[in-house]
Every structure is written in C-alpha cells, then in structure tokens.
Specification:
heterodimer; A: about 700 residues; alpha+beta; 6-stranded mixed barrel; B: about 250 residues; alpha/beta; 6-stranded mixed β-sheet; 4-stranded antiparallel β-sheet; about 35% helix; disordered N terminus
Chain lengths: ~700, ~250
C-alpha cells in the first residue's frame, strides 16, 4: 500500500492498521506527499490500497461506490455523462467541479452549510442594519428638525424635504457600502479559515470569490438605509413648519396610533409564535419559537419610548427622595428625552435578546438530547473500537465473553427524508438514524416507545420514527415512510413504532444489519453490553480490552448528532459574534452621536456652576439606566422564545442557560453602553470652542 | 450673612466689581487680535451698569472676563472683594456657582426641568438646600408667582427671561451679569424685563452689569460705560436713551 509521508514509513517497511477493530499488517509500497490544500485534516492521513486490498475490506460484496471514467479525446464530458446516465440505470454522473462532491462527501455538505449560514446571517444582519440605521437616522433627523422646518417655511414641499434626506442617505450609505465591500472579502477569507480550523468545512474546500455578492450586498444595504430613513424622517418632515418651529425642545413619549398598534401587534404575534410549540410539535414549532424573537424585538423597538417611560415610572420612587444634583438631572433628562434614551436602549437590548436566543437554543437542545440519551441508555456498559467501528464478528465475540448477558450492536448514520414545514414542502432534510438489533433491546436501550413495538424492526422494510418526526411528516404506525440512505439508495418502509427520545438517539431507527449494508464501512459504532448479575466490572473491562476494544463511559458517548450540533452551534456563535461586533459599532456610534449633540446643554450646566465631575456623573447615571434597561428588556424579550424552544424539545418550559455565557453577553453589552457614553461625555467636555 | 432673605450683598464693600489693567487677546492663525486693551474700572455695589459699544468693541469679552467665564491675558479682576483672575478652573467654577448670576439673551433654561428646578439649579449643583420662602420670594419678585411647576417652554419669552433672572438672583450673588437680556424680546416685554432688573437693584440692593447695544435698554441703567476697539471710551450717569444714542453716534471720535 502507499501511505502519506506523515506516517514516517519507508517503502518496504511493515505497518499495522486495524479496520473494524480487526488489525492487519501491510507492506508499505510507496510514500505519497499530498499537494497543499488537498488533504483533509479532519479525515486524517490517507492510505491507498490496491483494488483487491480495498475490496477485502469493502463490506458490500462486489459492488463499488464510484467508477472513474476517462473520456476519449474530443468527447465532451457533459455529453458523455448524460449518455452514461441514460444507458446505465441507477447511476449518477458527475463532471467538472462536481466530481469533488463524490470524492469528498464533506464538500457538498460544506457548500449547503455555507449557503444556509450566509443566508441566515444576511437576514439577521439586514434586519439589524435597518434597525440601527433607523435609530441613528431618527436621532440625527430629530436634531435637524429646525432646519427642515426652515426649509418648509421658505416653501419646500414635504416630499422635497424628504427627497433631500433620501438623497443624503443614498450618498452616504452608497459610499459606506462600497467601502464595506473591501473588508468583506477579507472577512470572508478569515471566516473560511476559521471554519476550516474548526472542522466545519473540509480543508480542501476552497471559497469562490465573485464581485456579485458584494454588488448584491451594496444594493441591499443602500435599500435598507433608504427604507430606514423614510420611516425615520416621514413624521418629522411632514410636521407643519409652524408647529415644528414652535414645538417644544423636549420629546414626547406619546407615539402615533399606527406605531402603537403595529408594535403591540408585533409583540402579541411574537408571544403567540413563542407559544406555538405547545400546540405544534417538531421542527415547525421549534422554528416558530426561535423566530418569534424577531417579532418581539421589532415590536419592542417600535414601542421603545413607551417602554422607557414605563420603566422610569417604576424607578421614580427610588430617585424621588434623592438630593444629588447629577441624579436629579439624569432623571429629568430621561423623562424629557425618552426617544434619545430608547435609541440607546433598543440596539443594546436587541444584542442581548438575539444573543441569548442564539446561544441558549443550542444549549437547551443539547441538554435535552443528553438527558434523553442518558435516561434511554439502560445497558451497564458501552463498548467501541478506538478510531473506527466494531465489526459484526467482534460483536459476536463480545457477546460470548464470560459474564456478558447481551451485546446489542448500534450503528449510526444519517438519512435524507422529505420534510414538510408548516404544511409546505421544504425539500429533503437530513435526519440521524440508528441501526438496532431488535431482539434484546429491553435490557440495553429504552427509546420510550409510544406506539407499536421496536421488536417488529426485525421484519423486512420496517422503520421506527421519533414522535416528532412522525408528526412532522404526518405518518403513524402502519403508514409508509420514504427516505434515502446515506449511500443514495431510495427506500420505502412501513412504520412499526414511534418513540419519544428522538433528540437523544436520532429520529429514525431501522434494523442494524439493514443500516450497515448502506454505510461505507459496514461497521457498528458501539455495542450496548449488559452484564450478568454478580459480574466483576474490572474483569469485564479487561476482557473487552483484550479484544482490542474500549469500554466507554456513558458520558463520553454523547447523544446522537452531538458533533453536528457542536459544529452548528460553533458556527452560530461565530455568526453572532460578527453580528454583535456590528451592533457594537453602531451602538457606540449612536450613543457617541447623542452625547456629542448634548454639548450645548453640558456647557450651559457648566456655566451655571456644574463641575465636570458632576456632569460626568449625570451622564453616567443615564448610561447606567440605559444599560440596565437594555439588560432587563433584552432578557425579558429572550425568555418567551427560549421557553417555547424548551417546550418544543423537552415539553418543559425550562431553557438551559449557561450563566457564564449570559453574564458575558449582558456584561459586554452593558459595558459598550457605559463606555461609549463616558468617552463621548469626556470628549464633549474637553473640547473648548472659546 | 444671608440669613434674612431680603438682605443683599454687604453694602460695606464699596466696589462689587473691579477691573485693573485687564487685556485679552484672541489669536486667529498667526495674527493676534486684541479684544480688550488695558481696561480699568470699578462698579459700585447696588448699582445698575450698562456696557455699550458697537459690534466687535469687546463688550461681550469684558463681561466674560468680569464674570469669570473667560480669563484675561493680563490684569486683575476682583469680584465682591475676591480676586478671580488667576483662579484655577475648578475653583473658578465653584466661585461662579456661588457668587455670580447670569442672564443670557437666549434665556438658557433647561427644557427638561420645571421653572422652580431651573431657578434653584445653582443651589442644587452646590449641594445646598433650597430655602422655600426665598424661592417663593424671588419668583414673586420676578412676577412668576404660581408658575414654578411649569416647564420653561410653556412660558412666554418674557416669562422665560424672568425665570432666568430669578435663577441669577437665587444664590444672592456678588453681581448679576446680563448679556443682551432683551435681545430676543419685543419692546413691551423688554421694557418689563429692564424694569425688573432695575427693581432688583433699587429694591433688593443687587449689583447688575448688563451688556447691550440698545440705547433704550442702556437708558434704564445708573451708569453707562462705552467701549470702542477694546478701549474704555468714557461713561455717562443718569443718561436717557436719547443721550445714549447721541453719544453712541459720536463714539470713538474723541
């Protein structure tokens, strides 16, 4: 065999490799060195066998996985591929770049993962951009109210004034978006590297760079900014010029009827969506609960000044009795400028709410999966082969060990099945599947069967589904379930049982041998071993070790799909960090702008005898109010979706929240608010105009 | 010393404000523009003084140096017997808060505070308690009795300036400085505000220094000081608006 040079072997030397726990000795015939970027670190170093050597290990008889075709000169590959597909039944041809998908299965998975990831990130980013831009713009437009009133007074129409704002925004956002496109390419490269390092995408997967996504991003950003400016400016610009010139310099917390109704409707809709899992099981309910946060956040944003006024009413008794000048001034400021305050609070609350849902949805799912897997694994021992799987022969040897009552093999893989999302066809979705030996499960595995019996998996063409998948696909015991195995084989099986612990053990279960015939290695992932009473655990462990196998801790095993979930949650955390970074920049921008605009007020107070320390304390009180309100609001907004998610996965409204992650999120966000106001206040006080 | 609410600055102090050889230059680029050149003057306590001069004559700079809002480049400023030139910024802030009252053209009331809070703000910032009887007395004296709980923007321009005057009086300052206090008011309201300033001097014994370019406003003062090109250009006592107008027309021709 030929081996990669990383083995450190010379041609002619001997090497022992084991497959399925069965070791074999090979002679090294050659050493290969992989080209840069073509090796897949996650898959480990490669070895190459002769056709006969490979066939000896191949578990599926005289079939092959892939046939490489070399065309005669002058033949177009696409044409040849189409000809082969039409003349040989049951084969699929791949040409050009797509050949990589066959050679490296990770490639297509990585591609669809990246598409999903960037799609969802783009959605949240655009929403955040609209939100933050609208907030910042309304702040700046409010500051220019007099200017607009003057324009209107000298004869400019409302639409002309609005046009002026829109043109300004077009110019600024256009320039900013184009500038942002350049670091976008660098960031894409950086994220690609990080994903590769985390094993989310294979090392041989190269990113395709094209100007088109940047162009689309520029257009979307500009459209978002213009839309936000229209929302922010309409009311201000439409105000009659005399009213605008006369209107008081403080702000009112009263909101327009339309805004109140829309805001309340969004909050109500968000709460309803968070409650959906109580009525709708499965991923549909989960998705509804997870996306309810968007409705809640937008609703809270619309009612911002209202919520601020409400919170101030709660705080009032605390401040009433104080005789501290900074505190009294800060309270008066908060009452008089609820919009300015809301413009600071809402983006911070948005960060905390979105961040909490993003962080604690995976932890809630993982905690429940682990609980199910722990509760469902009844067997005393788990046995696996280090680095590979357990062959059927080895499984029999383990079963024959003294003291072993039963050894039930389990293999794990994934299938693709058609899933309906809220009644709509949503294409095929991957689901975790496990292959079980139906004979002696009762002592080793408890999937919490709700209908039918797992024993019937012994019959041909049968399948068991988790209750959530059954409801999602609208199937019941007795119905047919159609799916694709990991090797592409299409199958239709009769549902013979439904079980509740789908999250911990995978949504689909079939007969062990059936599943192994559709996996590349044909090996089991582990054995569930029940010992006879009075068996010495140490002796059993030693006996298992003697076969070259390892006894696993139950905790080590992890629940089905734990690796995928880890990668996914890692990706979503990274996405969240990018988003929080963006939010941070915009929040700092908003707060610095709002504070800098208060320079005349600060200077007046200084002329009236306020010391700089008093002024700094005043804005610090305000920033504490902003940060505290943001933490409270953000947390309150995140709770309904998280509780809905918890109901969806476990039936209990108790999400798993990691205190450290929560404190980090809330603390960082609060510090952003406190820090930017403090810095802006210092800057405003330091600059001397006279 | 201020136990009785009606008692005003100690009359034994002969001059409430003294300027000795005060100069102030502004730098714009490489050139230095003198705004005040060697000004010396004394304002007796319990008098109403108007500072007049054309635009750019340095009258606002004079007021700012006298009130401790700006520091002179040379010379001394004594306010209520205390030398404030050479005080450090923090010290000066505290002194201004406790001993100087300001009235600006644009009222400069804080819209987020009620009239009462605006008036007592200097006391609040000083950490001193408010004497409710004194507050009521001052509000009544400026004609704002019963309007203390309103917000400034609910008052007319004249009422807002009255509130600003009340704020200037609340600390019983060594002097009240007014910078074009009637600049934004119509003539009827302006007359009432000037009458109020006059009243604080004659009835409360307060010292008022007012900068204006309006001869009618200056006509309410006991003494009118004229400024031209940063130099003192004489003064008049007991002058009428007409006298002041004539004098202004011939300013700098001596």
């Amino acid at each position: 065999m030929a081996v990669e040079e990383s083995f450190g072997k010379e041609p002619g030397s001997r090497i022992v490799l084991s497959h399925g726990g069965v070791p074999a000795e090979y002679t090294v015939s050659g050493v290969v060195s992989p080209q840069d970027g073509t090796q897949d670190a996650a898959a480990g170093p490669a070895v190459f066998l002769s056709a006969a050597g490979a066939a000896a290990l191949w578990p599926h008889g005289d079939t092959v996985a892939t046939v490489g075709v070399i065309a005669e000169p002058g033949i177009r590959p696409e044409q040849l591929s189409a000809d082969i597909e039409s003349q040989v039944s049951g084969v699929v041809g791949y040409t050009g770049d797509r050949r990589g998908d066959v050679e490296n299965l990770g490639g297509s998975a990585a591609r669809s993962m990246l598409l999903l990831f960037s799609g969802s990130l783009a959605g949240v980013a655009v929403m955040t951009a609209v939100f933050v831009t609208a907030g910042t713009l309304s702040l700046s437009i409010m500051g220019r109210r007099r200017e607009f009133a003057m324009l209107r007074a000298v004869g400019a129409g409302a639409n002309q004034t609005l046009g002026l704002v829109v043109r300004e925004v077009l110019l600024v956002s256009g320039a900013a978006a184009v500038l942002g496109a350049v670091p976008g390419f660098l960031l894409a490269g950086f994220l690609g590297d990080r994903f590769t390092a985390a094993g989310v995408i294979p090392e041989s997967f190269s990113l395709a760079f094209s100007p088109l996504p940047s162009l689309a991003a520029v257009l979307i950003s500009v459209a978002a900014a213009v839309g936000a400016s229209l929302v922010a400016a309409r009311g201000t610009v439409r105000t009659a010029p005399t009213t605008a010139l006369r209107e008081s310099v403080t702000e009112k917390s009263a909101l327009g009827r339309g805004r109140v109704i829309t805001g309340l409707a969004l909050l109500g809709g968000g709460l309803a969506a968070a409650l959906v899992p109580a009525a709708v099981p499965g991923s549909a309910g989960l998705a509804a609960a997870a996306s309810s946060i968007l409705l809640l956040v937008i609703g809270a944003g619309m009612l911002g000044p209202w919520l601020v006024a409400g919170m101030l009413k709660l705080l009032q008794p605390l401040v009433r009795r104080s005789s501290s000048a900074p505190l009294i001034l800060a309270e008066a400021n908060a009452w008089s400028y609820p919009r300015r305050l809301a413009a600071g609070i809402i983006p911070l609350a948005l960060a905390i709410a979105l961040g909490s849902v993003q962080f604690f949805m995976p932890t809630t799912v993982a905690a429940e999966a682990e609980r199910q897997s722990r509760d469902g694994t009844v067997a005393g021992y788990m046995v696996s082969a280090p680095g590979s799987g357990v062959s059927a022969e080895l499984a029999d040897q383990v079963a024959a060990l003294p003291g072993v009552e039963a050894a039930s093999p389990v293999s794990r893989s994934a299938i693709l099945a058609k899933a309906a999302f809220l009644g709509m066809e949503d294409g095929v979705q991957p689901y975790a599947i496990q292959g079980l030996a139906p004979g002696n499960l009762s002592g080793s595995l408890d999937l919490k069967v709700s209908e039918g019996s797992l024993d019937r998996l012994a019959e041909a063409d049968t399948v068991a589904l988790s209750t959530s998948l059954a409801r999602e696909t609208d199937t019941a015991p007795g119905d047919d379930f159609a799916f694709y195995y990991g090797d592409g084989t299409e199958a239709t099986a009769v549902v013979v049982a439904t079980y509740e612990r789908g999250l911990g053990f995978g949504d689909v279960a079939v007969d062990n041998e059936t599943l192994r015939s559709h996996t590349t290695t044909g090996l089991n992932d582990y054995l569930l071993v029940t010992a006879e009473p009075d068996t010495d655990p140490a002796a059993l462990t030693a006996a298992v070790d003697g076969l070259g196998l390892t006894v696993l801790d139950r905790e080590e095993l992890g629940a089905a799909g734990a690796a995928e979930r880890n990668a996914e949650s890692w990706v979503s955390i990274l996405a969240m960090l990018v988003l929080l970074g963006y939010l941070g920049v915009s929040v700092v921008n908003t707060l610095v702008m709002a504070t800098a605009r208060r320079r005349p007020e600060l200077l007046l107070l200084r002329n009236l005898g306020a010391s700089d320390a008093q002024l700094r304390r005043m804005t610090r009180h305000e920033s504490v109010l902003i940060a505290a309100a943001a933490v409270v609001l953000g947390t309150v907004l995140a709770l309904p979706p998280l509780m809905g998610i918890a109901v969806s996965v476990s039936g209990q409204p108790l999400p798993t929240i990691q205190p450290v992650a929560y404190l980090l999120l809330a603390g960082t966000t609060a510090l952003l608010g406190l820090g930017s106001i403090a810095v802006a206040t210092r800057a405003a006080l330091r600059r001397r105009t006279d | 010393m201020f136990s009785d609410p009606v008692e005003f600055p100690d009359p034994s102090v002969p001059a409430a404000l003294q300027l000795q050889g005060v100069s102030r230059n502004y730098r714009s680029g490489s050139t230095t523009v003198p705004a005040l050149r060697n000004i010396s003057l004394a304002v007796p306590a319990g008098t109403f003084t108007a500072v007049m001069g054309p635009s750019g004559s340095g009258k606002s700079t004079l007021l700012q140096c006298a009130a401790g809002l700006d520091a002179p480049d040379a010379g001394r400023v004594l306010l209520g017997g205390t030398e404030i030139s050479g005080m450090r910024s923090k010290e000066l802030t505290r002194f201004r808060r406790d001993h100087v009252g300001f009235v600006f053209q644009s009222y400069n009331l804080l819209p987020q505070l009620t009239v009462s809070r605006n008036v007592t703000l200097p006391l609040l910032l000083a950490g001193r308690g408010t004497d409710d009887a004194w507050l009521e007395y001052v509000l009544d004296a400026v004609g704002l009795a019963g309007l203390g709980e309103r917000k400034p923007q609910e008052l007319s321009g004249g009422q807002q300036q009255r509130a600003a005057i009340a704020r200037a009086l609340i600390t019983r300052p060594a002097a009240v400085f007014a910078d074009e206090p009637t600049g934004a008011l119509d003539s009827g309201t302006a007359r009432q505000v000037l009458g109020l300033l006059r009243h604080t001097v004659s009835a409360l014994g307060q010292t008022v220094v007012m900068v204006t370019h309006d001869p009618v406003a200056a006509g309410h003062a006991d003494t009118v000081i004229f400024l031209a090109d940063g130099r003192l250009d004489g003064s008049m006592s007991g002058a009428t608006a007409l006298d002041v107008s004539e004098r202004m027309a011939n300013l700098g021709e001596r």
